[in-house]
């Protein structure tokens, strides 16, 4: 049977993004997910299931039926989750999503389900375990990584894969092409978190993290491999490896 893969949803309470089409109402809440995640899971051999923001009991019950969990990209985390105050000009966090996903992630980490964390999800993984983030790479004096105007399905730069990591096993290469749609990144890895990849042009910018002490597949990536499965074999290999783990 094809593994069931739960994917956390984005969230909005402003009536949804389709108001110009006459769909949605002021104040209506929407759970949303880009199609890229759906197609990546399908292409790698899984059945995608969108995990909505809901009450903790329902969220845990639904996640518990999945063979693997993906924490998707989205808005910035509240800096208080990693012990900081917002810097000037910080993007407003989504309190509802933070409050939903943080306990869900911690519960998943205690279990044996394979876990893939993408962009915001990678940052959430580090913060949940006690690590910190750069709130803004440029303001921290590091190269910008938000490739505005570039197609999401197009690689923007390369990442160096550290030897001996799960990521190296998956992609079988020392460097891989990645896209870049983030302005934050892991600053201090949490205890037990291992850096798996860094930007080739600036090694202070972490591109992937792992949790070697957890027996189950656990990988966080700062780029969006779901958008590169049709063009970059390394990103497809990540999804295929994740689905293999979910199918065991």
UniProtKB/TrEMBL annotation:
GO cellular component, one term: cytosol
Keywords: Hydrolase
Biological processes annotated in GO: polyamine catabolic process
Keyword Hydrolase found: yes
Pfam family, one: Peptidase_C26
Gene3D superfamilies listed in its UniProt record: 3.40.50.880
InterPro entries recorded: Class_I_gatase-like, Peptidase_C26, PuuD-like
GO molecular function: gamma-glutamyl-gamma-aminobutyrate hydrolase activity
Designated name of the protein: Gamma-glutamyl-gamma-aminobutyrate hydrolase family protein
Lineage, broadest ranks: Bacteria, Bacillati, Bacillota, Clostridia, Eubacteriales
């Amino acid at each position: 049977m094809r593994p069931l893969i739960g994917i956390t949803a984005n969230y909005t309470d402003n009536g949804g993004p389709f108001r110009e089409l006459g769909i949605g109402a002021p104040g209506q809440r929407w759970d949303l997910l880009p199609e890229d995640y759906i197609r990546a899971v399908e292409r790698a051999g899984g059945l995608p299931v969108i995990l909505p923001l809901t009450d903790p009991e329902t969220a845990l019950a639904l996640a518990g039926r999945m063979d693997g969990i993906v924490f998707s990209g989205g808005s910035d985390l509240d800096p208080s989750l990693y012990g900081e105050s917002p810097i000037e000009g910080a993007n407003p966090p989504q309190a509802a999503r933070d409050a939903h996903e943080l306990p869900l992630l911690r519960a998943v980490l205690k279990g044996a389900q394979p876990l893939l964390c993408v962009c915001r999800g990678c940052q959430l993984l580090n913060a949940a375990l006690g690590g910190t983030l750069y709130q803004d790479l440029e303001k921290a004096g590091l190269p910008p990584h938000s490739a505005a105007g570039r197609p999401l399905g197009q690689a923007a730069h390369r990442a160096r894969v550290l030897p001996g990591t799960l990521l190296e096993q998956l992609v079988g290469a020392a460097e891989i092409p990645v896209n870049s749609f983030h302005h934050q990144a892991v600053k201090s890895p949490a205890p037990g978190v291992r850096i798996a990849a860094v930007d080739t042009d600036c090694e202070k910018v972490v591109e992937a993290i792992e949790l070697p002490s957890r027996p189950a597949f656990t990988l966080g990536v700062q780029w969006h491999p779901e958008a590169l499965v049709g063009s970059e074999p390394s990103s497809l290999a990540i999804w295929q490896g994740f689905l293999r783990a979910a199918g065991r």
